[in-house]
Amino acid sequence: MMDPKQSCPDVLSKVPNNVIDEILMRLPFRDAVCTSILSKEWRKHWCRLPQLTLDSDLWKPKKDIQYLTGDKRATKDLTSNFTMTIHNIITCHSGPVTKFTLCIQYWESYPPIDNLLYFLSRNRIQHLVLRLPRQFKLPPSFFTCLNLRHLFLQNCLLLPPPDFKGFDRLISLELHEVTISSKLLESLISNCLLLEQLVLKISDTLSDIIEINAPMLRSCDFTGDMETICFKCVPRLAKLSLRYYRKDWKEFDVANFLTSNFFESCSDLEYLHLDYGVIAKGQEIPKKLPFDLMCVKHLCMCIYLDRDEILCPLSLIRSFPFLQYLEIQMEHNFKKNMPALECLELEAFPYVIFKHLREVKLIEANVSIREMQLIKLLLAMSPALVRMVISPHRFLGKSAIVKTLAKLAEFECASPKAEIFLKQV
Fold first, then answer.
1. Quick one: pLDDT at residue 248?
2. For a Cys staple, 241 with which of 32, 48, 273, 288, CB 3.0–4.6 Å?
3. How far apart are CA 210 and CA 35, in angstroms?
4. 18 SS3 class
């Protein structure tokens, strides 16, 4: 009789290596390493994975929060376990590491990662994600990762050596709360000739204006002081998000922003998200930009409905003659009995027509007098409008919504195809 053990095929040994790699890369790192006990063949599988992800859950139980506190003993154990894990990766791993992710941004302190970055630089790292706690000064070995194509840094201090020329293969760059000089940031971006995606979230006020020279750039998301950024050469930029942030909360000079040549080099811009988040009092807002941007089709804004704030989106809409989609996030000061604005009456907009506007979305609307003025204006001047979606404020009662519907039915609409929807988000 045949031995039952001999009759059972070794299923695990017949799985192709590329399939095994795909399976292990989808598992948490701890579980991927544990597969080494399955068989002799599987003992070294995790050691050749080209993509590794390490996060806080690797070193602490899910219900154990002491590692995120100031407990000195717990912090010491955590650092020791982290160091051991990194040592095992460095000594056991064979082959290239194309993608590495380290997420420990909620730790009280950061463990040593100099050896890790040196190991990655020697193993042709292409995609690197570092989410670190507080500010960590990146070691010189980081600046030798010349195969990088995708880079994400959070809470890092960049002080490159004098001979650093940049990452000339970089396609995407994302910097969150990174300490870097204006000159270095400008140089870093300019030397990334293949850069297509750029995300900058910087709360510190930079000392100098950053000129963005990126001929291949397609998407840019900037959060910070918008007066410190200038798009010098971005002929392929199609998507731009700007969110104003300033620690001292000084008034943002909207008028200067609109009359400057900020958008002049954005000849291919299709999507614009603008959120300057402050009320600009006493500024003379221009009726339109110094030039028209024919390419912009999608505009998202966050506004207050005082006189100055409402003039800003109207100025932009006038400057984008081929605008098709408009989304406005309403911000409220909840003052009662606010009077109507003369600048929102139809008489104030002679010969202005939004010929290509097809869809409008108003978010967090409290159907105030001024908001109703804006809705009336857009309906009367948009002959191609197909759809207007009004998302009422979450505190708005049903009776107010019913009254709003009745008022909307009275407004003149330039488009016979336009439909109006009240939809709760």
1. 56
2. 273
3. 49
4. helix
